[in-house]
Protein 1
Amino acid sequence: MDHASHARKAQPHIESPRRCNGRRPPGRPPQSEDTSTPVDLTGALEKQAQRGNANDLPRPHSAANNTGGVEPRPPGRKPADSLFDIPPNLSRIRRLLFECNDPIEITQEEFDTYWPFIDNVWVKQRSNASKEGLCTSDYYMCRLRRPTHRPSETRPPLPEGKRPRKKRSREGGTCNFQIKVVRFEGAYSAVTISRTPGSDSTHTHDLDYSDRVKRNSGVMEFVRRESVKGYLPSSIYAKFQEEPEKLNEAGGRSLTVTDVRNVAAKWRIQNPEVQLVPHEGYEYQKGQGIIKSATANGINETSQLQPQPQLPSQMQPTLPAPSPQLPPDTLAFPQFSLEFLEPYLPTLPTHHSEKSEFPHVTLSYATSMDSKISLRAGMQTVLSGPEAKVMTHYLRSRHDAILIGVGTVLADNPGLNCRLEGAGGFGGLGRMWQPRPVVIDPTGRWPIHPDDRMLRTAVEGKGRAPWVVVSPGAPINSDRLMMLKGYGGDFLRIVEYNRDWRLRWEAILRALASEGIKSVMIEGGGTVLNELLNPEYTNFIDSIIVTVAPTYLGHGGVGVSPESKLDPQGNPNAALNPRDVKWTPLGQNVIMCGKIRLQDMRAGAPP
Ligand SMILES: NC(=O)C1=CN([C@@H]2O[C@H](COP(=O)(O)OP(=O)(O)OC[C@H]3O[C@@H](n4cnc5c(N)ncnc54)[C@H](OP(=O)(O)O)[C@@H]3O)[C@@H](O)[C@H]2O)C=CC1
Ligand SMILES: Nc1nc(O)c(N)c(N[C@@H]2O[C@H](COP(=O)(O)O)[C@@H](O)[C@H]2O)n1
């Protein structure tokens, strides 16, 4: 984006699946099965059924007995009028990828086609990459590994007159099912999916239960594609319900109109002037919602799944409607006081807030005792305990933007959203409390893929899509531009450099302010923090909130340490001393808060 422009009306770009040529990767030993042609999913399904370990899986239909499972058409095409382009055998392949009875080897293209329809089942735990980057292993655990509720003794007492909410516990308790997804890239590309040694052999629940807990991104992508055409969410929802077998096959049986609204809201925010319309043959009627037009088929047929007829006001229920089930990664709102943070935070916005030249800047990161923020560059390292993590998400909710360098995106694949209960997508409306992720990527190193957590988070209505700060020479072709814009993100070109051909932070911060960002929390990584802690930039930093962990990560870690400073006599001096410092223990961590800026450079700010 030209940083003064707000034109974000691009149509979405759907990436085509990557191709592979079926060759074995160099240096990889041949396996007992012939892997020179990767096992195709339907073939794997056949084999499982023949070995008798496919439980009650039906054998694949042939074209002759195709009663719904096999689609006699290639993926990526859909019959006229259908809102779904469902790949062949989807429901059975979803079950295969859910059960993971035997290791499965598939092509990258098959993985890209089917994984979005089953990703709701899994939560990624960690990734390992080989030295050459040709092989990556991603470890996933079943999303239902965690319990739904806290034990009652840790729950705070309810205010007087409030009835305890009925909490359903998880079907079958928690689930210890874990898988490993190994990808070989390069000339040959293949993906193997297998259970990890520590995994249980089955889930404690069925696939339908996972689908009820969370919608998969394949289904949400169908919703997004329809939303960007400017249709009313209730109309999209009604249209989906017209194809129940397709919706079920894709795992979307539990799709709600709220899910559709959340996806549509993202596009709507950027296109407020567009008048949303029902689909052709539908109309909106007060009190009835979306109904089929009388002209459509000669009858005035009310859509079955639409809002209930309204009750007269005296009959409206007095209790609030039960909260929809929150996503499993929701963080409970802190029950401990975070008051100590207040002096270091941006002031809460008012209607009269003036536009400043620069936003309030908070540096916030977690460090070891030896000032390392990760074990090594490119490796995500957890340093915050549960309480400090909740604090970080609270801090995210208090800033308009969260900024990181591209090194951190590539290392961590972060969500950069606020997952506190009550934030948008976690029980809150729209994008309430959700900050804008900002990535400094001057040379366009981030490939930007729909599977990236920041994009997935945006699609799921649980965060905003990122703005990517680039330099003028960054390779941004129209596909990348359209894709990022399609998700609600954008590129921000900065043309001011310092002596070392680095982007000037004043320029980045000024551009963010001109886009309406009044506060930005900078999380890292090492390169970004080390630059900003130098005297050249410290007058742009308002405060610093550091989570200190009781560990030494050692010499190989990514360190945070500004350049040394000398006094006028040439003797070494402390590089930076934060002011108004406060230390607060929080669980296993200690939080250090301090102020950095000496004079306020922001236009209109008091001296
Ligand atoms: N514990 C914690 O709280 C946190 C830890 N981390 C960890 O930090 C590590 C990543 O740190 P690191 O590798 O240093 O990466 P960074 O995230 O700091 O990104 C560095 C890259 O960002 C670009 N960049 C940053 N500033 C500028 C600028 N002024 N002008 C131009 N480009 C700029 C450069 O890209 P280019 O090279 O393309 O020019 C640079 O190489 C990861 O392991 C991550 O897990 C990250 C955040 C928080
Ligand atoms: N506060 C804090 N503590 C840690 O221990 C960390 N490793 C980080 N890392 C930062 O948080 C990002 C991950 O965010 P999501 O949970 O994916 O939203 C990561 O990219 C770092 O910026 N922070």
Note: Residues 366, 380-384, 392, 404, 408, 412, 414-417, 523-524, 547 surround LIKH6CAM (ligand 2) (CB under 6 Å).
Protein 2
Amino acid sequence: MTYLCQRLLGVVARTLKETRVRRPCLSTVTPVWIRPICSCACVDDLLFRQLFDNFTYTYTYLLADNKSKEAVIIDPVIDLVQRDLRIIRDFNLELRYALNTHVHADHVTGSGVLKQRIPTCQSVISAASEAKANVHVGDGDILRFGAFSLEVRATPGHTTGCLTFVLHGCRLAFTGDALLIRGCGRTDFPQGNAETLYRSVHEKIFSLPENFMLYPGHDYTGQTVTTVGEEKAMNRRLKEDLSGFTEIMNNLKLPMPKEFAKTLPVNMECGVFDE
Ligand SMILES: N[C@@H](CCC(=O)N[C@@H](CSS)C(=O)NCC(=O)O)C(=O)O
């Protein structure tokens, strides 16, 4: 009986092995990195704009469903709200949410003013940030605009309430200051913690498929976008082990942002908080 079972298992194992060898491997036929950005129906329906503030080197992102016209904006800057309103009007969009990846220390969020100008818009921030907003979110929450859903991932370390927003169907993620292109947010602010940031990036961002496009909160070097695979291979800070990373982060010696003392308290009120 035992002999028969062993023979049977051997046949099953050989069959499985042959099946695996014969079946064409998708990644050898079409390498993932040259496939189009979005293989789902959403690519035609997504309106996506990356907008830049050349004073604070901040990126703002506008995402909308072209069919329903529902939109969200990520990390608007108060000084550039007129620009954002013009684009929203040009495309006839209905702004649902003004999302903040965190309480910023270098510029004032535009989410409070946008909310005043557009009655359908609600300001959003992490509950962990303890800042005021209409909607408080946390890890695993979903924010919808039209047919699209953004997954909220908690990525603390630069600040306690840092969030990354993931648009799974389109393989896009908006990392705020948790992950910058070939860098990451500094961890020397009062709420900063290098070990927490290291774990956030490895567990919540590097766990995404390698072909996900990552859009950061800032770039100081003229770059616009990266991928999970690229950052895993080329981010000199985050390729280190935890102690190497902590050593680098504790010795960055960056000057404090010029507007630090002014912006933090204003951003705790969501720019201009008005229920
Ligand atoms: N020079 C700028 C501030 C630059 C800075 O500190 N950037 C932050 C994100 S905005 S709080 C950061 O985390 N940088 C990390 C890095 O490695 O550069 C100013 O004066 O405003």
Note: The two ends are 76 Å apart (CA to CA).
